[in-house]
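User: My advisor, Dr. K., asked me to get a structural model of this assembly before our group meeting. I'm new to this, so sorry if the format is off. These are the inputs:
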Amino acid sequence: MTASLDKGISVLKEMIDAPIASYFSSCVHCGLCAEACLFYTETGDPKYTPIHKLKPLRRVYQQEYTLLGRFAKMLGLSKPVTDSELEEWKPLVYDSCTLCGRCSMVCPVGNDIVYMVRRLREGMAISGHAPDGLIGASRRAVEIGSPMGVKLAAVQAQMKHVRQDTGIEIPLDAAGAEYMLIMSSMEIINFPEYLGAIARIMKQAGKSWTLCSEAFEATNSGIQIGVSDIARVLVQRIVDGAEKLKVKTVISPECGHAYTALRWEGPNLIGRPYTFDVLHILEVLDGFHKEGLFKTSGFEDERLTFHDPCQLVRRGGVFDEPRNLLKLVAKDFVEMSDAGKMNWCCGGGGGVSAIEEAEQLRLQAFKIKKSQLEQTGAKTLVTACANCRIVIEEGLEHYKMHIPVVGLTETLADHLVEGEKP
Amino acid sequence: MDQELFLTWVRSTGLDIAVGIFVLGTLWRLIEIYTLGHKPDLAVPRHRTGASGLHTMFRRSVPPPGMFKRSAISYVGGYIFHIGLAIIVFLSAQHIKLIQGLTGLSWPNLPSQFIDATAVVTLATMLMVLVDRINNPVKRFLSTFADYGAWALTFLPVLTGYLATKHLLLPYTMMLALHILSVELLLVFLPFTKLMHVFTLWVSRWYNGDTNSRKGVPV
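Assistant: The format is fine. Below is the predicted structure of the whole assembly, which you can bring to the meeting.
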């Protein structure tokens, strides 16, 4: 056994807890999880059955934590998990799993399958079986501060553009501000309209807010690759920044997994609750509107539909806010089939969009989103995750569909009534 | 072996061994599983009506939206044979009498014709789910010897019980002894196979429901 494999197996042993033991003991091999997974439904290949992706973890569980399994191991009757097996499983654990959690919604015995995949990735990564794309992104996140290599200068350039476009000076490192905004690299590089939209809404709402020079990046490659040590470092940066500036609330951006990382995994990674609140931008905007802090005027004339980012909705619990906000600006809003907590993933979550060798499979899996979209007849797709947005744009391009994909925050800002106090 | 002797053995020593392994094995498995523990969640929970471990324990018995049409046979077959097994085990006159003898507890039984019909439907449904396991690419891919073994361990008690009450195939004494033996085999293997789900699925559903309820997601 190599040292890295040894470490990987040790980590997997640490990862196995009572829920995982209960889940493996409950599985009846009914295969219904396959019917919930876009990688199976769109390819028809049984190897993409979610519970099958966990086979190495299941064997470690049986060999280490069950009486009969230990007995079989002692007598040399069971097959140990090997490096070549983990390498063979890499495309199943990473390329074909977006951690979307749809399988966990349907398992009749109640298994939270995505909880187990997330934990299996810990052992895969430490034993050297993570995809190169995610290794690179994680390295850049730790060393440079962002998975796409974005530095503070790029953020400052965007702040300058916003000032030129709107006349609004975006605060940086303003201690005592109520809100601290963090962003995804994608928003900084590809969708700069997000920052401008926030600046205008914050001004109208009369709220104090700030960016933080030491913690502007929200994404967390650590939870995608499955290395808690990296995830912890990245969360800690935000926690340190927020606590240094003594803000009341950190606003998670239009990025699904950044929300999961900070809101749900973060306190567990750093081992304590935060001294501040974490809200998704849509929760903040819905709250502002309910308090009457801003008004909108006019409507989008064309038919709109909304893509629920998995980590925000199914894995995050932000269901109603996007609908409340969309209704303010959309006359003809239609839901996709399976909308809400049963929505289908864009195919690029959980780090999949960063895995180059997964591209063909991802585009094949996108067929489900294509079909959902076609059913609605929508002319514009709104979403609230920059990664979903870019993955969907690529999918639409591939299938030659001409539907613009926009962020909800900027759509709302397009209808903002500015100047007069509501 | 003499039929009477065989019946006596399965009713005494055989039953003691089987019940002993079943009880100790189940206890051991439950301890083995649930003493592994679970770290507390430090994230501030969000509350939403309908999201809890308890809700999921019950809700998961109903197909989630969109799932029935994707695998109707799994749901229909699953419902029929599980309900059928429960009716046969707990509502047939012979089984209630047995339970009364062991515990003193009893309740009204269903007519034997109804139990017979239930047994036939249950057996037919179990054959259907077996064929589905062999035909469905995902189920076939996932299935191991243990899956077919667990199916046989569940099927045989129903089959032998039906044949015994109908006095078919073998003399009654022999068939009854085989019926009891098949139940004993089921008891012996239950804690160490996927049949253990009869106990753990409730906790699994609770864990899933509870974990996600903290995020305000009813699952």
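One thing worth pointing out at the meeting: The two ends of chain B are 54 Å apart (CA to CA).

User: Perfect, thanks a lot.
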